[in-house]
Write a structure and sequence with these properties.
Blueprint (H helix, E strand, L loop, with lengths): L1 H22 L17 H12 L11 E6 L4 E6 L11 H14 L33 H4 L28 E5 L5 E8 L3 H14 L23 E4 L2 E6 L10 H7 L29 H10 L4
Antiparallel strand pairs: 1-2, 1-4, 3-4, 5-6
Length: about 300
């Protein structure tokens, strides 16, 4: 029985390594298979580094960033420090959790950031227990050589990481066609600074065409909400909106309110473009799309 079990484990490991070999992008500038429309390692690193370099209201620490596609498959992993030990090693998996969470609990018309899930998942909250609903796959999180962590060929790429995280740093990714294409997770500083860095990273990647959310700010629909107040008998206080997140610092709170507004749908389209025809490429056949564009006088 032990021999059969050992063989089964060996076959499973071989299959995992084979899948990883097929999923790696090939170069730092290439996009991993199944991740079209999402950033390459190099693009993620550049955007993450630019965001980390700004004042974010945290401890000025280096960061991990992870991108997943709509199926929760890891597409890119990066860090901003000199090497993988320059930022908290544990934050690699936390960043992946955040990316998975933002993707898994956002919808085409409703974006939810991980920061907005904090209050509802506390004891007594309407989503209490959510953190245990989609566990991290340890075979994906810890496979491969640590020397490759955060590189273009990070062993996590191509795997479905899973995991749920309910503090700041995870955002849904929406392209210019208003299509939800995946999630971004950032970790390495305070959770509030993580959110600010993630927001700026998404903006630089041009994947912030967010359709709507619960923040109450139409220009920042999935922004972190700071509305938790002390309440007698409750250690964590109460959130007026039900989507609140604890305050980390006055600076982080101020910065969050001044983050770039999300981009408007089809802002770059020619005059006369009709929103009702602006569907993703797979909705219409090429010839039908050309007919519709011709009717609008665009070709």
């Amino acid at each position: 029985m032990s021999k059969i079990k050992s063989l089964s484990m060996a076959f499973a490991m071989a299959a995992s390594l084979s899948a990883f070999a097929q999923a790696t992008p090939g170069t730092p500038t290439a996009v991993a298979p199944g991740c079209q429309g999402l950033p390459s390692h190099q693009q993620l690193l550049a955007a993450l580094s630019a965001a980390r370099a700004q004042q974010n209201g945290g401890f000025n620490l280096d960061m991990w960033g992870v991108v997943v596609n709509r199926d929760g498959i890891v597409c890119a992993v990066a860090f901003t420090g000199a090497n993988r030990g320059s930022q908290w090693p544990g934050s690699r998996n936390i960043a992946a959790q955040k990316a998975n969470t933002a993707n898994a609990f956002s919808l085409p018309q409703l974006a939810l950031s991980t920061a907005q899930l904090y209050t509802a998942t506390q004891p007594g909250g309407s989503l209490f227990g959510l953190q245990a609903s989609n566990p991290v796959d340890p075979a994906v999180a810890y496979r491969g050589e640590p020397a490759a962590y955060g590189q273009w060929n990070d062993p996590m790429i191509g795997g479905r990481i899973g995991g749920v995280n309910v503090f700041g740093g995870g955002l849904g990714l929406y392209n210019a066609q208003h299509v939800l294409v995946g999630g971004l997770g950032v970790s390495g500083d305070s959770s509030c600074a993580d959110h600010n860095i993630s927001w700026r990273t998404r903006h630089t990647l041009n994947l912030d065409f967010v359709p709507g959310g619960v923040s109450g700010d139409t220009q920042r629909p999935d922004n972190i909400v700071y509305d938790i107040t002390n309440a007698q008998g409750l250690q964590i206080g109460t959130s007026a909106s039900g989507w609140g997140h604890p305050v980390c610092s006055a600076a982080a709170t101020t910065i969050a309110g001044e983050l770039p507004a999300v981009q408007e749908q089809f802002a770059s389209r020619p005059t006369g473009w009709r929103v009702r025809w602006a569907a993703p490429a797979w909705v219409f056949g090429r010839s039908e799309r050309r007919v519709r564009r011709r009717r609008l006088g665009l070709i």
